[in-house]
Design brief:
The protein is mostly helical.
């Protein structure tokens, strides 16, 4: 079964990717129970019939040290050796282990089922600037882009021009005459 054999380095790469998943302080040398269950689920080691999440948790508890909460790569291999005959019934231990390695190699933690941002029609309607009325309408230009400070405040015209000034000539002429 030479064509189906998988190198330990490839398996270790996947082990490290799953070991650091979801934990910013993880080094990739040890894996916790949650990530061990995740690698088993994402790589389809857990099939729901022969191998369940309970089986995975039991095997994890068996291979880890008594007081430890994590397993090393060697303990990970030991756990896979225990799970392999369960997952692939009717095959030799070595053949089943190689098939299990085949499932793991090249896999990365999937973010399937991660919550997506809901885009409801109500949100669209409430944030559409073209439907605003009154004073709020003045805060946006025709394209719906905000005007910034000029849309929020009345900025006085300090150009010096007085629009309602009625008189002949300029202000300076009036001051001279007086």
């Amino acid at each position: 079964m030479a064509e189906g054999s998988v190198s330990q380095a490839e398996v270790q790469t996947s082990f490290q990717k799953f070991a650091v998943h979801g934990d910013s302080k993880a080094t990739g040398k040890e894996m916790n129970g949650k990530n061990f269950a995740k690698i088993c689920k994402d790589c389809h080691i857990i099939d729901g019939k022969n191998v369940t999440t309970t089986d995975v948790d039991i095997v994890f508890s068996k291979v880890k040290a008594k007081s430890a909460r994590v397993i090393t790569f060697e303990q990970f291999n030991q756990a896979l050796t225990e799970l392999a005959p369960k997952r692939f019934k009717g095959k030799s231990k070595e053949e089943a282990l190689q098939q299990l390695y085949g499932l793991i190699v090249g896999k990365e933690p999937a973010n399937a089922g991660v919550t997506k941002v809901a885009k409801a029609s109500a949100v669209d309607r409430l944030t559409d600037a073209s439907k605003y009325t009154g004073a709020h309408k003045e805060r946006f230009d025709d394209s719906g882009k905000g005007k910034g400070k000029s849309g929020r405040e009345d900025i006085p015209d300090t150009s010096g021009y007085v629009s309602a000034y009625k008189g002949s000539g300029t202000y300076e002429d009036k001051v001279k005459d007086a």
